[in-house]
Amino acid sequence: MYIGLDVGGTYTDAVLLEKGRVKSWTKVPTREDLLNSLLEAFDKIMRGVPADLIKRVVLSTTMITNLIAEKKYDPVGLILLPGPGLENSHYRFDTKTCIVGGVIDYRGREVVPLPEGDVDSAIRTLAGLNYKKVAVVGKFSSRNNKHEKEVCRRIQESYIDWQVEMGHEVAGQLNFPRRVMSTLLNCATRDKYQFFAQSVLAALNSRDISCPVYILKADGGTMPLNTSLSSPVETIFSGPAASILGVQALIPPGETAVILDIGGTTTDLALILGGQPLLASKGADVFGHMTHVSALAVKSVPVGGDSVVECVGKELILLSERVGPPYCLGGPMPTPTDALKVLGLTKLGNMKKANEAMKILGKPLGIETWEVAARIMMMVNDTITGEIKNMFEKWEQEPAYRVWEVLQKKRVRPNTVVGVGGAASGFMPMIAATLDCRPLIPPYAQVANAIGAAVARPTLQVSLRADTEQGIYTLLEEGYQGPIEDKPFNEEKALRLAEKWLHKRAKKYGLENDMGEVEVTRREVFNMVRDWVTSGKLIDVSVQTKRGILHYIGTGGGNIER
Asked: Is 452 contained in some domain?
């Protein structure tokens, strides 16, 4: 049996799968006391089921996405080591940024030593602004991390309680601005993510569940939960990835559709083409900032059933934040869920309280409760459909989408919208009508994210970097560096060597029987030229076990816990 668990900002969903069928499922409120929410979810789905029958637990969470969407993450200062190239004024991020000298070149050679005075000045500046979290990122730190480590050491000599994140530990790819953003977000969300992970492990331990535990990554792959503690940025779009895999498992194979996961805090948009999720070829776009996080092509819109609605002057304003449950469920502010209740589109909450919420908004405008509710519905609809139309412009630039269009032999967009998530049933008819699409709400739509986590195929990755002139190669995940023995060494040999190590890792984690097909996720080759002659190559490759779902979900059966 497999457990899938999705921890959202509003609800925690859990499912128990047995041989491709949903044996039981539940939704419980996500409380500040996360441990008790998790225990309640486990107890409901495992009623009468011995713990030793559970073979695997896979988690997903929208927690990190929600933190970033609502800008509730911790402030992080930046110390950057960009070296020569762009003017320093080009490095603009929404936080205090200190530029430090010193140069590591593209091959990882130290050209200019790190100026200690610059480092100490940057540390004093951040200390004066009360920063206690710092991201240290060098342009070519993935080739040589000496300068990053030296900055980190000098920080910790004076401020042992500061949290310091180094770019080379977060992302190995080139593209300096993306590595900066990935490192900044990793630093900003680490504490809260570790609290989440530790709560999950404590809940499992208290129920004697001792099987392997994984977290779903943004690209639909998985990683061991303990491993993920050092890289929470990889889970930024864990929740959206889970909803995509859940829909993939719940609709017929080969379908093409837009996916709409409407939760309490955010709405996640994604696309399935010919039965396969669309992968973002350039990495995750986190609310306008590109990162090195490999991800499915998703967009999180900061609007959901619990979003705050206010009356400002003579206008209703839909805010991109959640301050609690809907008014009809005892919350402090009117929300779209209250509008759904007034219009008879949800069974949640108290009708009297929902009407009261609409009266609060409608009184300054002199309009009836039903009209307030209708306006809120229209605002939510316009926000979501507008984002979907914008996303199509981005989706259509992805290589996989272009291939799909070629196979269709005409330029066409999907005409089906699949809605999942707690608020989907209320909003879907209007959204689908606006997009001129067919609405579809599959079975178990309320817990699609948890199903997606449960059916996710276990994945492992190996990233290999080789310098043929120096005759060495490095494995990022293993922290191993060794000599290149198979010469002459080229890209294909690098891939074979990476696959060899991937099999070793799979055996280490007990996944050798679940490996399946191996896919290449990154391959970059740079020629090194001396005196007009190629003297060697820098080769970067990454391989992983293939992402996807273990099986489709059958219909019927199952105990339903509400």
From this structure: no
The verdict on 391 and 436 lying in the same domain is: yes
Phi, psi of 159 (to 5 degrees): -135, 80
Mean local confidence (pLDDT), 325-345: 92
Please give the residue range of the domain that contains residue 313. 252-441
**397 and 484: one domain?**
no
Instruction: Please report the beta strands in 392-476, taking only residues with DSSP state E, as ranges in sequence order.
Output: 416-420, 438-440, 461-467, 472-475
Per-residue pLDDT averaged across 101-128, rounded?
88
pLDDT at 288 over 80: no
* 283 and 410 housed in the same domain: yes
With respect to residue 187, please indicate whether it lies within any of the assigned structural domains.
Answer: no
**How far is CA 279 from its chain centroid?**
13
Please state, in angstroms and as integers, the Cα–Cα distance from residue 324 to each residue in 291, 329, 331, 445, 491, following that order: 30, 9, 6, 23, 53
Looking at 46-90, list the stretches that DSSP marks H as alpha helix, in order from N- to C-terminal side: 63-69
Cis peptide bond upstream of 488, omega within 30: yes
CATH number at residue 10: 3.30.420.40
**Lowest model confidence (mean pLDDT) among 4-8, 21-25, 544-548:** 544-548
**Same domain as 331, residue 223:** no
- The answer to whether residue 515 is domain-embedded is yes
What is the total count of domains within the chain? Answer: 4
Tell me: pLDDT of 406 over 70.
no
DSSP codes of every residue in 160-184: TT-EEEEHHHH--SS-HHHHHHHHH
Please tell me whether residues 164 and 213 are part of one structural domain: no
* CB-based contact 77:99 (threshold 8 Å): no
What is residue 495's predicted lDDT score, i.e. its pLDDT? 92
| Inter-residue contact 465 to 525 (CB < 8 Å) | no
459 pLDDT band (50/70/90 cuts)?
Answer: confident
Residue 262 · residue 62 · CB < 8 Å: no
User: 295 and 216, same structural domain?
Assistant: no
Over residues 239-256, the mean pLDDT reads 89
pLDDT for res 119: 92
Write down the mean pLDDT value for the chain: 85
Pair 258, 271: CB distance under 8 Å? yes
Q: How far apart are CA 548 and CA 452, in angstroms?
A: 10
Residue with tokens 């290149």: 484
Q: Which of 156-165, 363-372, 514-523 has the lowest mean pLDDT?
A: 514-523
